[in-house]
Amino acid sequence: MSSLITKLGKKAYQIRKEMLDMCIKAGTGHVTSSLSCIDILVSLYYGNIMRHDPKNPKWEGRDRFILSKGQASPALYTILADLGYFDKKDLEGFAQKGGRFGVHLQYDVPGVEITAGSLGHGLGVAAGIALGAKMNRDLYLTFVLLGDGECYEGSVWETAMFASHNRLNNLIAIVDRNYLCVTDFTENLIRLEPMEEKWLSFGWNVQRIDGHSFDELLCTLNTVRSRRSDMPLMIIADTFKGEGVECITNIPLWHGMAPKGKEAEICRIDLERRYNYE
Amino acid sequence: MSNLSQRDAFWNRIYELAKEDKNIIIVSADMGAPALDRIRTDLASQFINVGIAEQNAITIAAGLSMTGKKVFVYAIAPFITLRCLEQIRVEGAMMKMPITVVGVGAGFGYEDSGPTHHLTEDIAVMRSMPDVVIHSTSDNVMASAFADMSCKMKVTNYVRLDRLVFPDIYGKDSDFSSGLSVLKEGKDAFILSTGSMTHSALEAAERLKKKNIDIGVVDVYTLPINAPLLLKAIKGVKKLVTLEEHFLPGGFGSAVCEVLADNGLLIPVKRLGLPIEKGYCYQYGGREIIRGFYGVDAEGIDKQITAFLK
């Protein structure tokens, strides 16, 4: 386990670096929203959690991954390129003329399931897939990653009721709980806490973990396939918006953009200092 | 089939199809109807009630569609189009998801329910999105055929059904694949109509005949409009009337005018429908009274067409 955790740490650094470079080059992209969920995504894709095949993106037996917080597409695109779903060169054209994909998630990119960017949609699509899998007697799991600010959308709670009522225990939701929206911290905007109680009262199993601890992420995710429960699982992963790059971490209004000029260089230095792998 | 509503004709056919095809799934936002109740009881595993939650209905439908299901999402028409419009836009149109959105209550079908339940903007809204096809139903034969056609759609499909009972216009086994039908030829002009207003158009043509006005009727039931066929149907016509139970901006009449303008056919057109200046209607006592409020009851249609053709 410890060697896997070391490996994931290195991978998380690599993905952060490549994602940051990609967004700096493009001059756009939700960098901080991507940084907050990279450890979660790295656990899913490199921690032997999700079943998937980069050589066969439409493999019927694959676990479905729905990135509901579509603004974190830079994180997912970087990972999918690293895994070989498409050529890494495509990252260079991110959000630029002739580029294959842009700031928000696009369903026609290999390895991507849905178009996302408008919030409050992904959980419903994931629940529909989970229900369809049960109807078809398919054993794959459906994972969905939501932003915490997304939980203001009423449609999230329409699906929350639906998923527990229909006992979709093949649905694994994760909230990237970075506590920040666009202009302010969530608890200043409209309180989201207590999150566990909210999801519990909607009939879900709930676990709350440190979303930057590979130890906690793997401990939780390692058992999702063998859970003894007929309810969907919500993992509330506490994170920091901007994690890994201290100068843009946990700062309101640092949203929906990429660092430029001197700030970009400071970001790169911060990332090196934090990981110090090279 | 004329003793049924379009709703029942449509769901009766879906019942037959779903019995043979387990991949047909109905997602209902807590709607009831005799034909639907039959699906719920006889084909329980193919019937999903999401409760009164239209946004969730569309996203669940999209997810089910991604697992190979042929999904029909059903609710009262203004709610399953406008309440969850963005879900239709993203999960439907943007991903070319072959789901069928079925709305009941086109126009003033919910005649006693007031404007929340009237469907008076959906054509404008739904036709503004790419990869969404509108099927605007005018009789039960068509409703039943649309059930079959919906199973084969490759993009998002919207079927608007009337709630009230109308006589059949079309013969059994009619073909609706062309998107429009010339129901009556005319020398002086043509009425192009959609949905229940096609019945009004046919009646108006009969009445106007007595005033020596020879006016034809074209029923347009698929949008985007089959432009080449429409242009062929109205070739040589000097004046056109469009008729819809829908607000005029962006509606069916607008769609017709776009076809004419884009093809350089500059003939006088009178759009009959709901003038937006009149606002929403809080009158009761039947559909004809509400239509009268907007000047498109039988008398109003005759008056306006006669004045236009003078």
Mind explaining what this structure looks like?
The complex is a heterodimer of chains A (278) and B (310). Helix content of chain A is 40%, strand content 10%. Chain A has helices at 2-26, 31-46, 73-83, 122-135, 154-165, 186-189, 195-201, 214-221, 261-275, and strands at 64-67, 142-147, 171-177, 205-210, 233-238. The longest helix of chain A is centred in the first third of the chain and has 25 residues, at 2-26. Chain B is of the alpha/beta class and 310 residues long. Chain B is 39% helix and 20% strand. In chain B, the strands form two sheets. In chain B, strands 2-1-3-4-6-5-10 form a seven-stranded mixed beta sheet, sandwiched between helices. In chain B, strands 7-9-8-11-12 form a five-stranded mixed beta sheet, sandwiched between helices. In chain B, helix 1 (6-20) packs parallel to helix 7 (140-150), helix 3 runs parallel beside helix 5 and helix 8 packs across helix 12. The longest helix of chain B has 15 residues, at 6-20. The interface between A and B is medium-sized, with 30 and 26 residues.
In brief:
The complex is a heterodimer of chains A (278) and B (310). With 278 residues, chain A is an alpha/beta fold.
List keywords for this structure.
heterodimer; A: 278 residues; alpha/beta; Rossmann fold; 5-stranded parallel beta sheet; globular; B: 310 residues; 2 domains; 7-stranded mixed beta sheet; 5-stranded mixed beta sheet; 39% helix
